[in-house]
């Protein structure tokens, strides 16, 4: 694979693709002074056969990102910069990502604005996070934005979704979660486990073919987990194909029993529970190192 490392004095576009042959390109730690502006258009022109692109700790300035060849696209700790009106405090436009051929998508943003996803019919597996900071709320990120983002992923088979940032309250019974008719593997975080299991129930109600649910609990009890909260008029759900619930947690985490009790009380007595413990080191490493 083509291994691309951004160096402070090396022009990144020249280093990206010296020939059209590479099919995989990892790009890591782009210097803040050389953020990725116009990168994707030049990448597609210079690497017409590229199928696997991995970006780690980069800042993306492109308004539109598209590729007709990429099959695997990973944004790991990537910040999307979006132009804004500093007087009205509104976004002029959002970054859009067109994915007509991508089958595997990973988007992890440490903070900032969430891009718009387009042409996602080919995506089978997605691992995405929505990071909402207080500055994001100044630009009116709300449940409608969340719903539109999830809607673009509603046709996939394997979904990992993580919510980070300020507490998001769903009002007036807003339908923010689409129906995931094809999802068989679903991974969620501790953010969905409030006292009423609100967000978890919403996802279960909208995943009729779900077979395996994975819940990743916080590694530290000192960390404040963000939540999506609201009220439900109907708390029952039917997941007749659900046979496995995997909980990844710290040792002796008391929430494991709470999760088990939730499913038993919901009538899911035949579900098998598998408990795994966090590694003390591996999961704090960047994704490209964990995959080695």
Overall description:
- The protein has an eleven-stranded parallel β-sheet.
- It is α/β, with parallel strands linked by helices.
- The chain has seven helices and 20 strands.
- It folds into two domains: 1-141; 167-292, no CATH class.
- Helix 5 (198-205) links the parallel strand 16 (185-189) and strand 17 (212-216).
- The radius of gyration is 20 Å and the shape is globular.
- It comes from Oryza sativa subsp. japonica.
- InterPro entries: F-box_SCFL_complex_component (IPR053197), LRR_dom_sf (IPR032675).
- This is Os10g0127900 protein.
Short description:
This protein is of the alpha/beta class and 292 residues long.
Strand order of the largest sheet: 1-2-3-6-11-13-14-16-17-19-20
Following the backbone from N to C, one meets helices and strands in this order, namely EHEHEEEEEEEEEEEHHEEEHEEEHEH
The dominant shape is: globular
Low-confidence stretches: 1-19, 30-34
Strand-residue proportion: 25-35%
Distance between the termini: 13 Å
Mean pLDDT metric: 79
Class inferred from helices and paired strands: alpha/beta
Biggest pleated-sheet summary: 11 strands, parallel
**In angstroms, what is the radius of gyration?**
20 Å
Question: How many domains make up the 3D coordinates?
Answer: 2
Query: How many DSSP E strands?
Result: 20
Number of helices: 7
Helix content: 10-25%
Protein name: Os10g0127900 protein
SSE order and pairing:
Blueprint: E1 4-5, H1 12-16, E2 24-28, H2 39-46, E3 52-56, E4 59-60, E5 64-66, E6 72-76, E7 79-80, E8 84-85, E9 90-91, E10 96-98, E11 104-108, E12 116-118, E13 125-132, H3 134-137, H4 143-151, E14 158-165, E15 168-169, E16 185-189, H5 198-205, E17 212-216, E18 228-229, E19 244-249, H6 255-265, E20 272-277, H7 287-290
Parallel strand pairs: 1-2, 2-3, 3-6, 4-7, 5-10, 6-11, 10-12, 11-13, 13-14, 14-16, 15-18, 16-17, 17-19, 19-20
Antiparallel strand pairs: 8-9
């Amino acid at each position: 694979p083509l291994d691309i490392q951004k160096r402070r004095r090396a022009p990144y576009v020249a280093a990206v693709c010296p020939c059209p042959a590479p099919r995989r390109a990892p790009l890591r730690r782009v210097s803040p002074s050389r953020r990725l502006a116009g990168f994707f258009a030049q990448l597609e022109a210079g690497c017409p056969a590229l199928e696997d692109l991995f970006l780690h700790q980069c800042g993306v300035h492109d308004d539109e990102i598209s590729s007709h060849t990429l099959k695997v696209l990973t944004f790991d700790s990537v910040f999307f910069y979006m132009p804004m009106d500093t007087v009205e405090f509104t976004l002029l436009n959002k970054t859009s990502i067109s994915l007509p051929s991508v089958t595997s998508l990973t988007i992890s943003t440490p903070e900032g604005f969430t891009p718009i996803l387009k042409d996602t019919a080919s995506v089978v597996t997605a691992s995405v996070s929505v990071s909402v900071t207080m500055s994001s709320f100044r630009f009116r990120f709300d449940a409608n934005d969340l719903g539109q983002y999830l809607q673009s992923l509603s046709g996939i088979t394997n979904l990992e979704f993580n919510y980070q940032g300020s507490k998001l309250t769903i009002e007036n019974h807003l339908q923010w979660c689409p129906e995931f008719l094809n999802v068989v593997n679903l991974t969620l975080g501790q953010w969905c486990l409030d006292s009423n299991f609100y967000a978890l129930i919403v996802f279960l109600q909208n995943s009729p073919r779900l077979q395996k649910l994975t819940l990743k609990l916080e590694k530290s009890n000192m960390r404040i987990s963000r939540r999506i909260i609201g009220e439900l008029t109907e708390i029952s759900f039917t997941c007749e194909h659900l046979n496995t619930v995997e909980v990844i947690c710290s040792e002796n985490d008391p929430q494991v029993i709470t999760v088990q009790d939730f499913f038993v009380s919901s009538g899911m007595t035949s579900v098998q529970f598998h408990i795994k413990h966090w590694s003390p080191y591996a999961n704090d490493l960047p994704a490209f190192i964990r995959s080695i």
